[in-house]
Amino acid sequence: MFSSALLVACLAIAAYGKPVARSLQVHETRAQVPPAFALKGPAAPDTMLDLRVALVQNDIAGLEKALMDVSTPGSPLFGQHLTKEQVESFVTPKQETIDAVTAWLKENDIEATQASPSGDQLSFSIPVSKANELLDADFSEFTHIDSGTTSIRTLAYSIPADLKGQLDFVHPTTVFTKPFSGPQFVTPPKIKPAVNVTSDAVPASCASTITPACLQALYGIPTTPATVKTNQLGVSGFIEQFANQADLKTFLGRLRPDIPAATTFTLQTLDGGSNNQNINEAGIEANLDIQYTVGVATQVPNVFISVGENNRDGVNGFLDQINFLLGESNPPQVLTTSYGFDEPDLPTSVANSLCNAYMQLGARGTSILFASGDGGVSGSQSQRCTTFIPTFPSGCPFLTSVGATTGITETAADFSSGGFSAIFTQPSYQASAVSTYLTALGNTNSGKFTRTGRAFPDVSAQGENVEIVLSNQFGLVDGTSCSSPIFASVIALLNDELAAAGKPPLGFLNPFLYSAAGTAALNDVTTGSNPGCNTNGFPARAGWDPVTGLGTPNFAKLRTAVGL
User: Which of 343, 344, 367, 517 is within CB 3.0–4.6 Å of 561 for a Cys-Cys bond?
Assistant: First the structure.
């Protein structure tokens, strides 16, 4: 017979590592498996999961007010961007929140580490069996049908009822992100030589091939070298897309021979990121982005931020990248990203968390630009749908979404994603412009989109037949992934002049862009549409529209509008 002491010891061993019982409430749920995925089966109980918990932030409404105060022309605080410490004072959770969540984790023998600069995210690893019990979940393996990639997710999970209002969400749980895809590279039948532009006339060749010279002619972008070395333009890199320095040199040699051939970019890495210089591993997207930031924003210091495949944030490194930048004392003044998701891929909680992180960086003076996507009204890429699919992060109101145009007399590129967020409500800065568009639209596509959602894109730029170099070959690419680095380059050049004049960078752009002065400094695009979901999509019209936004840049007018 066991002694009573031994029995107690055995019971203690059996209970070790089992979650302490609390009253649980369902926190997030999905009604069904997303159509792009298939359930493979239960996840192995001993498989380790890398999870994060997000704590409720201290005063996110206060941060939003501060962002708008420093970003709105005419505000007494305009241009007085916040410091890292000031931003963190808004988002660092209250001590009672930290204590409540960490106590719950410790009760369950979970050691968590800080996963964000302000401590609003904690990370830890536990086996599937423990995660299922801790969260009353059913973690399973799901396969992305087209790519065959697998991930472990659950369609629902619960948290302790007494942590409501303290614990924001657990992640990755109900998020189902599809693998990123990029533009296709097409080798033209005949390569045209670079055109030296000596007047305001746009060369006829620009109708079929877009080069830096075409953009200089179309938008009045100067070739004068930037002078302020602390003014940085950041370029996001994901999915092991490498920006090749030899290809950049070839690109500059033909298309920007006035720029020194040795001009290059610096590199930052996270999550095991790198930038392999094997010419055969050059990435279409990475080369496109770097060639058009270095090749258009003349002598503005460029930094390529390579996010590796070791990311464990459940959103392909997006959370890791923004936390990385928020942790820096001096992040880039402009950040351009040519990747994104369909908004339904992300739970509202995760989308809000990322959006609020972009708000933090914007409040510190960084202009954040994202390509709007290439599926018209059907999302990030063309796909079957019955209702319009907004893209993310473009639906976030604290960044600038960039659509695409085509042609010398610019018209909307038909792939340019645009529409209305189903998560984020319409911000006040765009209310008037969007209301005017919706009134003119009438009942067209009624019921296929949310009329009260944040509308995008905000602006646009050329996105079709854009010439790049890949593995020492010239060719053409299409996509809003061309447009975002082009518009970002314009902002970086304006920031250079502002810095040289002793003025702050532009920071969060939208309140300025939607102001009378900002709108008047853009070329309105009034033709074309973005079909999808068995419809003609949205038509471009005078003023703002959900295909080309407010229009394309006019550098001279923008320069005046920002006070130069």
Answer: 517
Candidates 120, 289, 464, 497; catalytic one: 289
Classify residue 449: in a domain, yes or no: yes
| Whether residue 96 lies in the annotated active site | no
- Given 168, 285, 414, 496, which residue is catalytic? 285
Q: Is 525 annotated as a binding residue?
A: yes
Please write the tens of the pLDDT for every residue from 197-239.
334 578 888 999 999 999 999 999 999 999 999 999 999 999 8
Mark whether 490 and 345 lie in a shared domain: yes
The answer on 309 and 250 residing in a single domain is yes
Query: Residue 397 carries which DSSP code?
Result: T
Mark whether 285 is an active-site residue. yes
Domain boundary at 115, 148, 171, which?
Answer: 171
- For 238-290, the pLDDT digits (tens) are 989 999 999 999 999 999 999 998 999 999 999 999 999 999 999 999 999 99
Strand duo 233-237 + 140-144: pairing: unpaired
Helix, strand, or coil (residue 429): helix
Q: Do 127 and 265 share a domain, yes or no?
A: no
Structural domain harbouring 38: 17-57+92-171
| 319 and 449 housed in the same domain | yes
**Which residue out of 236, 421, 481, 484 is catalytically annotated?**
481
pTM, two decimals, is 0.93
Phi-psi region of 445 (alpha: psi -120 to 50; beta: other; left: phi over 0): left
481 given a catalytic annotation: yes
**403 and 538 both lie in a single domain:** yes
Q: What is the pLDDT of residues 519-538, one digit of tens each?
A: 999 999 999 999 999 999 99
Contacts of 140 (CB under 8 A, 6+ apart): 39, 40, 41, 42, 43, 152, 153, 154
Cα torsion angle, 333, 337, 342, 345, sign:
negative
Q: How many domains does the chain have?
A: 2
Q: Is residue 545 a known part of a binding site?
A: yes
* CATH number of the structural domain spanning residue 515: 3.40.50.200
H helix intervals, 305-392 = 318-326, 348-363
